[in-house]
Amino acid sequence: MEPNSRSERVRDRIDQLLAWLALAMAAGCVFLANQRFGSAVMGVAFQDDFYYYATVARNLALHGRSTFDGIHLTNGYHPLWLGILTVLMWLSRASDQRFALMVECVQSALLGAAALFAFRIARRFCSVPWAVTIQLLAASVVLIQLRSGMESGLAVAAGLALLAYRTSGSFSWTTRRAFLYGLLAATLILSRLDAGLLVLLLMVFDVTPAARRREATRTGAAAFVTGLFPVALYLCVNAVIFGAMLPLSGTAKQLRRHHTPSVQSLSSFREQIFHGKSPVYGLFAVLVVVALVSLLARRSRTAAPAPGVIVAVLLFPFVQMLLVSCMSDWPVWDWYLYPWPIAGVFACGLLVRLAAGRIRLMDRAGQAAFAVSLVLFATYTLLLLSGTNPAQSLTYLAGKDVQRFAAEHPGRYAMGDRAGAVGYLSSEPPIQLEGLMMDKPFLQNIREEKDLRTVLRSYGVRYYISTEYPDKLGRCVEAREPVQAGPDSPVMRGTICGTPLAVFPHGYLTNRIFDVSSPD
């Protein structure tokens, strides 16, 4: 894997330089270039669910309260990303443009970190041309994760950092290194809590076998577990302040009447992987299966550094999909796919290493693969740049419409799906009817399937904001909250009739505002 001649070393440095130039261009085009839209930057830089984070971060930074609607305390978020956004909100003094710029700088740094650690992991398996190819493949889907503004981009970077540290040639099971290994694992969990599945798999396939082989002493294994203490601290703080150890946003999606695997959830995963925002997800899925079969068949264990770690990483996406589908029948979005770039880096590296022992001219093939990946990555970046337009951010435009309406119609609002931008832009964010940004008592209303009109009255709601398809509009709204919940989950239902006070059509969905302060 190491270059044998001066010309190869020069070529490898050029390849790495070109890859980093492409990554720098991506950071500039996909993130920092959004500043050209001025005050409208928030409308192009993030997806609607990001605004749930941003609204809570603003309330924490300015008022010291973890709340979305300004009334109910909530922990409906992954803590590390919320903490970062709160600091940025405080530093920006809640200026949209400054806040967006700071977030984009953090996103650019996370892209660079993920790319760096992906390259280091890949180099444990293969030569530089193949390693930079894998680096760009991973970076292309990390861009998608980061563009959403959600926590998943941070989780990918944290996961790759953890695994690069563990698979480095200098790792040993000393107390200090094992403690740092655990601390990095805690960072990953706090970036996205279901990443605890990867840590659990590492404990099964890496930490425990190492202890049995006496590579890790009892002190080393204990040091790893001790490094996880921030997670225990987070759970305890949650229990004391919110009465729930885990985020209520996750609980709101897990109110199913049973927990067998949900066909709806698994179908949603399949759609996102094979027909989503990037074909690289599908490529990674296929390669992970091939690599996992090869590794479990024991044909490649001798060729793999830290084989237990690799088994854990390759199993991670499938275990995560199974757990999500058992717990929830809601659809999934692209940020649920964050395990695939992590597993994809290992799968690609392992398969290239195996092929190098069987196929001649693999080095030349690596150069060709890098050239193709470089061109495709640069083209993809430019397409993202040219396709960015505030007019395409339908939820943000709806939020601006509701903001103008609310300025002339004070009162308490309620909204279910797509309420993120509405809440961020409103002086009084709505009661979030999906329960994602609410408290435990509100989830009980959903669990008991209470009448929606009764719930709205009990929360003092005057204005209900519906989200409907244009061809389904009528005098009445047959409201179902949460609308995204699958067939096995409880929902609140209610019929809301009357002439809407406002109608805001945006693309394939229309928002209508009804006065529900008096009975029909």
UniProtKB/TrEMBL annotation:
<feature type="transmembrane region" description="Helical">
    <location>
        <begin position="99"/>
        <end position="122"/>
    </location>
</feature>
<feature type="transmembrane region" description="Helical">
    <location>
        <begin position="179"/>
        <end position="208"/>
    </location>
</feature>
<feature type="transmembrane region" description="Helical">
    <location>
        <begin position="76"/>
        <end position="92"/>
    </location>
</feature>
<feature type="transmembrane region" description="Helical">
    <location>
        <begin position="336"/>
        <end position="356"/>
    </location>
</feature>
<feature type="transmembrane region" description="Helical">
    <location>
        <begin position="280"/>
        <end position="297"/>
    </location>
</feature>
<keyword id="KW-0472">Membrane</keyword>
<feature type="transmembrane region" description="Helical">
    <location>
        <begin position="17"/>
        <end position="34"/>
    </location>
</feature>
<keyword id="KW-1133">Transmembrane helix</keyword>
<feature type="transmembrane region" description="Helical">
    <location>
        <begin position="368"/>
        <end position="387"/>
    </location>
</feature>
<protein>
    <recommendedName>
        <fullName>Dolichyl-phosphate-mannose-protein mannosyltransferase</fullName>
    </recommendedName>
</protein>
<keyword id="KW-0812">Transmembrane</keyword>
<feature type="transmembrane region" description="Helical">
    <location>
        <begin position="309"/>
        <end position="330"/>
    </location>
</feature>
<feature type="transmembrane region" description="Helical">
    <location>
        <begin position="220"/>
        <end position="246"/>
    </location>
</feature>
